[in-house]
Every structure is written in structure tokens, then in C-alpha cells.
Amino acid sequence: MPTPFYLAASVAVSAAITWGLRALPFAVLTPLRRSAVLRYLARQMPTGIMLILALYTLREVRPTVWADVVPTALALAAAIGLHLKTRNAVISVLGATALHVALSTFWPI
Amino acid sequence: MRGIRARDFTAAAADTASVGLSLFPLGVSFGVLVVHAGLTWWWATVFTAVIYAGSLEFLLLGLVASVTPLGQVAVTALLVNLRHVFYALSFPLSRVRPLGRVYATFALTDEAYALTAGEHARSWSGARILWMQALCQGYWVSGATLGALAGSLIPLTLHGLDFALTALFVVLTIDAWRAQRDLPAPLLAAASFALAALLAPGQVLPAAMAVFTTSLLIRYALRRRADSPVPDGHRHPVPAGAAAGGEG
Fold first, then answer.
1. Which residue windows are transmembrane per the record (chain A) (predicted)?
2. How far apart are CA B106 and CA B48, in angstroms?
3. What pLDDT, on the 0 to 100 scale, is given for residue A59?
4. B-chain residues within 8 Å CB-CB of A8?
5. What is the pLDDT of residue B137?
6. What is the mean pLDDT of chain A?
7. Is A89 on the interface with B (CB under 8 A)?
8. Where are the domains of chain B?
9. What letter does residue A58 receive in the DSSP assignment?
10. Which of A59, A71, B39, B45 is least surrounded, with the fewest CB atoms within 10 Å of its CB?
11. Residue B88 pLDDT greater than 70, yes or no
């Protein structure tokens, strides 16, 4: 069982590293913002980064287990379909998550 | 002055409505997991308020439950959050007043980056950006705290709540695509992810982002060569150094 001291130390280490990674690059990159290549990157990166993050959140889905694949595939289709149709992120996120909760709770195991 | 602040807050509340709807339920499921890992409920509040990096917190829970050495905790934090170095490229930190920058960098999560990445965020004031970040953290911390409290009272688990994070990133991908309709970039991203999953399964996230950034740089160089030679003083291959971190 982790002690409170160990837990606090883990939290402090994680927070310090995370903040460092978020803050320090500004010191290095801000003077270079005017460069054409960085402006190109800043414009091209968001779509790809968001896609990579979306794919990353699916890493626990076991591709051979129906109880994993079917709710995820249907909920993904719902998220994409709802968002293309309504353009309303609230509806898309809430609808797809509700569907996923319902499917993974009631899916016959 | 007060009127301007209120307007910034109201605008930020609208900006973050969709993100809040996924951060809050995700926080709830994190809080439930904290209690399931055997920790007292208020550790959920401490984790989410002090670290404030969602995917790392989920991973950290498994690490501390098995009392993993601090060195390994540090390496995990570094690898999982390495992607944040790229956010400095476009996050509008210069609009935030100097004191606020301490918090703005601390709370520069994937969601905060995504919200400011779009075309519509060009006009946001520093106060609106800070409120946006504070609200995002508020949803996350309150969700986790409530989830942990509920989890210690009711022994019931809702499966599948974590899909909110996937749905959020899917929505953000579509929005980013609408701002910049350019097919090669997402295709390169998907290919980078596949490559990273094959070659570096232990650190997919930083590896995929490094490969993706490198491929964009190569594309940029090829395009420049195809175009006529344009005089340009800024031709250092800059972020390759930052990108190379995850690649080894």
C-alpha cells in the first residue's frame, strides 16, 4: 500500500515534469515563431495531433473481442455522424458517450 | 473593468461547454478509479488539481498502486507529456499578462491547446484564455472529486464513460479539419501513429508526434524545392531537435 509521503512525492514529481514540458518550450520557440517553417507547422499540426490523440485513446480496445469492438465502432460512427450533421460538439460528445455507456453496460458478455 | 471581466467569463463558459461535457464525466470515472485503487477519495482532488494532465493521471494511478519507484514515475511523466512541447508553437501565450502565464503554461492541456488552435480563437483576449483554462480544470477537478466521493459511497461502476475522451478528440479532429482542409496532414498523422504503434508500442504518443512532425518538415522541404527558390532568412530546421526526443 502506498504511503501518503510516497503519493505526495509522486504527485510532485509528475507535476514538476509536466509543467516544465509545457512552459520551457516557450522560451526556446517563441523567438522562432516568425519563421515560415514554424508557421507551416502550426497550421498543419492541429488536425493531425487531434487525430493521433483520438487514435491513442482507443489503444485498450482489443481488436478481436466483439464486446470491445462493437460498442466502440458504433459510438465512433455516432460521434462522427452527429458532428458532421449538427456541428454541435456538446450533442456529439454527449450522444456518442451515452451510446457507448449503454452498449458496454448491456452488451451480452 | 468588471464588465469586461464578466464578458470574458461568459464567453469562456460558452467556449468550454463541449469540452466540459467530456472532461466532467471523464473526471468522474477517474475519481471512481482512484477509490478502486485503494486511495482515500481526496487524492482524486490532489491528483487532478496539482498534476492536471489527464492521460498521465490515469497511468499514474496504476503506477502508484504498485508503488513504482519515483524515477520510473518521472520517466513516464516525461514520455507521456512530451507532446506538450509542440503546443508552444501556436498557443497564444503572448496575449496573457506575465503573471497569468504561470497558470496558462501549467494548464496548457490537450483540450486548452485544441480550443485555441482554431480560427475563431484569434480574437480571444488573455483573460478569456485564462478563464477557459480555469473552467476546464474546474470541470476536471470537480468531476474527479465527485466521482471519488460517489465511488466510496456506492459500489457501482458505469462502464464506458471513458469514451468521452475519444469522442472529444474525434470532434476536435473534425473541427480542426474544417479550419484547414488538407488531406495529406491527417493521412501522415494516421501513418505516423501506425508506425509508432508498430515500432515503439511502449511510447506511442511521443513517437507518433515526433514522426508526424518530421514528416511535415520533409513535406515542407519538398514543397519548397518544387516551388521556385524564394529568399528566406529563417531556414533553420528548428523543431526537429524538439521532435527527435521521442524517436530513439
1. 6-28, 40-58, 64-82, 89-107
2. 12
3. 83
4. 46
5. 96
6. 87
7. yes
8. 2-160, 182-229+236-248
9. T
10. A59
11. yes
Is residue A26 within 8 Å of residue B105, measured between CB atoms? yes
Phi-psi region of B160 (alpha: psi -120 to 50; beta: other; left: phi over 0): left
Read off the pLDDT of residues B8-55 as tens digits, 9 standing for 90 and up.
999 999 888 888 888 888 888 889 889 888 899 999 999 999 999 887
Q: Kindly state whether A13 is in contact with chain B, defined as any CB-CB distance less than 8 angstroms.
A: yes
Any chain B CB within 8 A of the CB of A109?
A: no
SS3 of chain B: CHHHHHHHHHHHHHHCHHHHHHHHHHHHHHHHHHHHCCCCCHHHHHHHHHHCCHHHHHHHHHHHHCCCCHHHHHHHHHHHCHHHHHHHHCCCHHHCCHHHHHHHHHCCCHHHHHHHHCHHHHHCCHHHHHHHHHHHHHHHHHHHHHHHHHHHHCCCCCCCCCHHHHHHHHHHHHHHHHHCCCCHHHHHHHHHHHHHHHHCHHHHHHHHHHHHHHHHHHHHHHHHHHCCCCCCCCCCCCCHHHHHHHCC
Which residues on B lie below 8 Å from A44 (Cβ)? 180, 182, 185, 216
A28 contacts B22? CB cut-off 8 A: no
| Per-domain residue ranges of chain A | 1-45, 58-109
A37-62: per-residue pLDDT in tens? 877 887 888 888 889 888 988 888 88
